[in-house]
Specification:
With about 550 residues, the chain is of the alpha+beta class. Helices cover about 55% and strands about 10% of the residues. The protein is built from 28 helices and nine strands. The protein binds adenosine-5'-triphosphate.
């Protein structure tokens, strides 16, 4: 039997996994039954990028809002009708917690009657078989997959299949959703689903689409990996004009969008967790009028996306301004400034910056300056016992990187000369073995293995230390992470963090050093430890 908890754990990013644990903990405390549902399950099983986490609870999630806020989640919106909470969990994880419910459609074109239900009934109201599964996150049944419509089989067959014949009539937004999933995954509609789809199209069911569903579908485009492809397919099927009558693929800034997605991939590979959705919306609607854009925004239920999209240009302008000022007068200052900027802003500015200096600085930040990190002599630092175990290590690593960036350490010899004074004294030799009876025996000639080892260590200790070599994962490691696939997305922290960490430590520190000249900085950093080292040698 498949182990879905294991699959979930290896497919989710560490932040998403923390999100699952957090929601699970809150639901457990509130004694509410919780399931991971919908697209998250589909993507975990199919191997596609898990874009967001959909949870379903048997109860009212709106009551949990305070608990989520206390746990550090942002409330990005709520839907009173479906009692859904839209959240951004720590680590920028998008999540939705919905109430398990039935939706009864009494009249075509009218919204459904909503009532709380069990998870089994809830799965019956869903759009496609591959989206109608639930994974239990409850004690006693954790890991149990509810798959009443054989969604796993359809994932394997790569088919989009409705749950029943009236699906498109009940909710015509499913026509748009079917097209979107087919375009994204390149999965065709199953034969009968295709027939129903054609009939629904012919009968113009789409004119009964709910306004709320339009806003939801507009927002979903922002999270597509290839949004232009989806827009083109929606246009071909005549659904794009349903989202907005004046929207077309001609209104998209295709070049800007392509560059955005390419740069986003580059940033993901460097270890950034970057949410491109606001920028995607900017480019998808680049040639629409301000009024049309306002219309689109008004319909989107997730206000966090609307605000980010609305403010993106102003925030990017602010960052561009800072990048042309004193704050970014040197490569090291620019590095610190960009290290503390939001990745979303770096991404947007990388694509839209008009000033050559700004564009160049961002380019250096994402490419050339990363190579400078490789010049940090980590091996020699380990030999000098300058390892991550040292409390001062982040600062030393950062300082050396900053000096290298600014061209103040021009050779390896200069770099080592700078580093040597920071080497901690070697650890004292271990105390001599106690002389018990065994000790006497030793004195008589036979040296116990332990004692022999300590003596040897003591000798070695004079020159080099027996401290285990530090893991060489620090600033030199070329940060890498997979962009689209989950396991790779887990990497960023492991690889990029030390880099960012060092940069962060320095960004605080950099204020103190703002005016320090090269020699000042170096002497400040070298003098004290030099004396200490001399002392320790005497000892
Ligand atoms: P995506 O990867 O685009 O986020 P998703 O399947 O997670 O896909 P959402 O729009 O976030 O899509 O919806 C979450 C789940 O809610 C779906 O998987 C589906 O089970 C259900 N759902 C959403 N919209 C509808 C709808 N119009 N009719 C029935 N079920 C729906």
């Amino acid at each position: 039997m498949a182990d879905y908890i294991y699959t979930m754990e290896i497919r989710l990013t560490p932040d998403q996994m923390k999100g699952v644990n957090l929601v699970q903990e809150i639901a457990r405390t509130a004694e509410i039954t919780l399931y991971l549902t919908g697209g998250a399950i589909r993507d975990i099983i199919s191997g596609y990028t898990i874009r967001d986490l959909d949870f379903t609870v048997q109860g009212n999630p709106l009551k949990l809002q305070k608990e989520f806020e206390r746990a550090g989640a942002q409330i990005a919106g709520r839907d009173e009708d479906t009692r859904a909470l839209f959240l951004v969990l720590p680590g920028n994880v998008r999540a939705e917690i919905s109430m398990a419910r039935t939706e009864t459609y009494e009249k075509v074109g009218k919204p459904p009657l909503i009532a709380p239900s069990s998870i089994q009934e809830d799965l019956r109201r869903r759009d496609f078989t591959v989206n109608a599964m639930a994974l239990s996150l409850n004690e006693g049944s954790r890991g149990l997959l509810l798959d009443p419509f054989n969604g796993v089989a359809d994932i394997e067959a790569k088919l989009v299949r409705i749950l029943h014949n009236y699906s498109f009539a009940e909710d015509p937004s499913r026509l748009i959703r079917a097209t979107r999933f087919a375009a994204r995954f390149h999965w065709p509609l199953e034969e009968r689903t295709q027939q129903r789809y054609n009939a629904a199209k012919e009968n113009n069911y789409i004119e009964h689409i709910a306004r709320g569903a339009i806003g939801h579908e507009i927002a979903q485009l922002a999270h597509e990996d290839d949004p232009l492809n989806v827009i083109r397919v929606l246009e071909r099927e005549d659904w794009l004009k349903v989202l907005h009558p004046r929207w077309s693929s001609a209104k998209v800034d295709a070049n800007g969008l392509a560059l955005l997605m390419k740069t986003r991939q580059q940033m993901v590979d460097l270890g950034y967790s970057v949410d491109p959705s606001a920028a995607v919306m900017h480019f998808l609607t680049a040639r629409l009028s301000d009024k049309d854009i306002s219309d689109l925004r008004r319909q989107i239920p997730r206000k966090d996306l609307v605000e980010a999209w609305r403010d993106i240009e102003d925030h990017a302008k602010e960052l561009a301004k800072r990048l042309t000022g004193k704050e970014a007068a040197t490569p090291s200052r620019t590095w610190n400034l960009l290290s503390s900027a939001r990745p979303e802003m770096i991404l947007f500015l990388a694509v839209t910056a008009r000033q050559q200096t700004v564009a160049q600085k961002i380019k250096n930040f994402l490419t050339k300056w990363r190579d400078v990190q490789k010049k940090i002599p980590l091996l020699e630092m380990t030999e000098l016992l300058i390892t991550p175990q040292l409390p001062t290590y982040p600062k030393i690593a950062h300082d050396v990187f900053m000096l290298l960036l600014d061209g103040k350490l021009r050779s390896r010899t200069e770099t080592l000369r700078f580093l040597k004074p920071f080497a901690p004294p070697p650890p004292p030799p271990p105390p001599p073995p106690r002389r018990g009876r065994a000790g006497k025996a030793t004195a008589a000639g036979a040296q116990p293995a332990e004692a022999a080892e300590s003596t040897a260590k003591g000798k070695r200790g004079k020159g080099k230390s027996e401290t285990p070599a530090a893991p060489v994962s620090t600033a030199q490691a070329p940060s890498s992470s997979g962009a689209k696939t989950k396991p790779a997305a887990a990497k960023p922290e492991a690889t990029a963090k030390p880099v960012v960490h060092a940069a962060k430590a320095g960004s605080k520190h950099s204020h103190a050093h703002k005016t320090a000249s090269k020699s000042k900085a170096a002497s400040k950093l070298t003098k004290k430890p030099a004396r200490k080292k001399a002392k320790s040698r005497k000892r």
